[in-house]
Design goal:
By secondary structure, the chain is an all-beta fold. It has no helices and 11 strands. The chain starts with a strand and ends with a strand.
Length: 124
């Protein structure tokens, strides 16, 4: 499979962005999937996760601002990000399959497929 993110950009504090992750050769309908931001010089972390049956989990500081969703018909995963803060600035990756644990804890497999990332910059 192949994943391709889009929708990143540069916005001011308080702004919003909608990220998309298009899948080719695989589907989000039968597996859990997630979004992982990686800020410069830091490790990749979990931000939002959607289980195969539609349950969602979020990192604590993103829970009330970000919304993960998916469209099984178009094989697309989304991340709506509102009230953006400078600390949200990162390269955002989508990945599947994953295991949604809790909060920002998302486990991955050796065979988890990753996209190439889309850059989000939030200016202060």
């Amino acid at each position: 499979g192949h994943l391709a993110e889009s929708g990143g950009g540069s916005v001011p504090t308080g702004g919003f962005l909608g990220l998309s992750c298009a899948a080719a050769g695989q589907s989000f309908s039968g597996s859990s999937s997630g979004w992982f931001p990686q800020a410069s010089g830091r490790e990749r972390e979990g931000a939002a996760c959607m289980s195969f049956d539609g349950n969602t989990s979020y990192a604590k500081d993103m829970k009330d601002r970000f919304t993960i969703s998916k469209d099984n018909d178009t094989h697309t995963l989304f991340l709506q990000m509102n009230s953006l803060k400078p600390e949200d600035s990162a390269m955002y990756y989508c990945a599947a399959p994953v295991i949604c644990m809790y909060g920002r804890h998302i486990d991955t497999f050796s065979w988890t497929v990753w996209g190439q990332g889309t850059q989000v910059i939030v200016s202060s």
